[in-house]
Amino acid sequence: MVSDKKLKLVQELVKDVKSYPIVGVINMCNLPAQQLQDMRATLGKKGVKIVMARKRLLQLALQQSGVENIEELRSKIKGMPALLFSKDNPFTLYSIIQKNKSSAPAKAGQVSPKDIVVKAGPTNFAPGPIISELASVGIKTKVENGKLAIINDVTVAKEGAVITPKLAESLKRLDIQPMEVGLDLIAVWENGLVFNAKQLHVDEQEYTNNFVSAAQAAINLAVEITFLTAETTDMILQKAAREARAVALEQNFMTEDTRDEILAKAEAQATSVKNEGKIEAQSEPKKN
Hints:
Helix 1 crosses helix 3. The chain is α+β, with helices and mostly antiparallel strands and 288 residues long. The protein has a 5-stranded antiparallel β-sheet with strand order 2-3-1-11-12, sandwiched between helices. It has a 3-stranded antiparallel β-sheet with strand order 6-8-7. A two-stranded antiparallel sheet has the order 4-10. The chain has helices at residues 4-19, 33-44, 55-65, 70-74, 90-99, 130-135, 165-173, 204-224, 233-250, 259-276, and strands at residues 22-27, 49-52, 81-86, 102-104, 116-118, 121-122, 141-144, 147-150, 154-157, 179-181, 184-190, 193-196. It is flat. It folds into 3 domains: 4-101 and 182-201, Alpha-Beta Plaits (2-Layer Sandwich); 116-179, Molybdopterin biosynthesis moea protein, domain 2; 208-276, no CATH class.
């Protein structure tokens, strides 16, 4: 029989699911207590609410809420789950959670959160038994300047793969910390749509670069078609001045601005003809 306390919790969760536009599922497996407290405080400042409960109770609350397409989110509950409620947009929420994660060494039996890639390059290891140890997990090496160097980039574990004891030890020796410690956002429901965590990832630097590139392309196009704006007027006038000067020089049209260059060009051409024809300058004949 379900206790009154649990029934009340489910009722409160149902109310939250119906009242918040954003409902997320998170997995808190392997999350240290201190980091959980820190994340609660960070997210709490942004009006985010986190509720931990047994998987069965969370699933029951989502089911009883009856909101559109919530069953898809319900199916994604796993690990040590909790529900997250927010009025912010899911992309901002994901970004905050990711920025508050820290790296940690991999342990045997853990699941890789992403593809683990060991980069090619020098190491601090001298040749020895470590050559076979690295080779056993797919890392090929060679000796350079008395030290081992990794020959090629190699993916030693795919996302979702279980870390073996040998791989965990090799990554530790290479000082590679592939694990992420922090809240693991699984999926987010927003007004009937469910987003997996990967769909919420936005490369902020790439996003900024795209804006800069688009702005530059728009300015270039405006200048090309002579579309006058506050940003393009000076550039268009400068372009027109350069093109007018180039035409004047091509047609030997004398102006105060082109005179010196046209005369210099004429002199250079005359010198070239003289040299090609082996013409020698003659002095004026003397008058009797």
